[in-house]
Amino acid sequence: MTSEERGPAVEKMVDNTDQGRFELYRGDELVGWLYYTHLRPDRYALLHTEVEASHQHQGVASAMIRQVLDQIRGRGGTVTAICPFVADYFSRTTEDADLLDPRHPGYPDRATAEAAEREAGR
């Protein structure tokens, strides 16, 4: 039986606190991760999203952000959007706007976040 015949692999989100990143697994394979800094009291600065090259353009980053936000919501946390992809997500939906930290929301959109990265030389 091929992997297509078995159906889609089960997704699992892991908070790898040692690496400072949330990791998305499909089956046993690490397909993407989102680096963060955990600030007190429960604010998460979402810094950078990466997806394995073999899994790009398959909705991995969006699925990962959705699951990360669900975990942060479950912890009663807030988010500061530093990553351009995360900022883009928040600029396209109001569904999770309540998770943005009111004092430190981060960048309002992808273009602003990317400009800040260029200015910082990243």
Protein model, in words:
The protein is an alpha+beta fold and 122 residues long. The protein has one domain (3-120): Aminopeptidase (3-Layer(aba) Sandwich). Helix content is 32%, strand content 30%. Strands 1-2-3-4-5 form a five-stranded mixed β-sheet. Helix 2 links the parallel strand 4 (43-51) and strand 5. Helix 3 (84-92) packs antiparallel against helix 4. The longest helix has 15 residues, at 60-74. The termini are far apart.
- Annotated CATH architecture: 3-Layer(aba) Sandwich
The CATH homologous superfamily corresponds to Gcn5-related N-acetyltransferase (GNAT)
Fraction of helical residues? 25-40%
SSE topology string: HEEEEHEHH
Secondary-structure topology with pairs:
Blueprint: H1 3-6, E1 11-16, E2 21-26, E3 29-39, E4 43-51, H2 60-74, E5 78-81, H3 84-92, H4 110-120
Parallel strand pairs: 4-5
Antiparallel strand pairs: 1-2, 2-3, 3-4
Helix pairs in contact: 3-4
In short:
By secondary structure, the chain is α+β, with helices and mostly antiparallel strands. The chain has four helices and five strands, in the order H-E-E-E-E-H-E-H-H.
Task: Give me some keywords for this one.
122 residues, alpha+beta, Aminopeptidase, 5-stranded mixed sheet, 4 helices, 32% helix
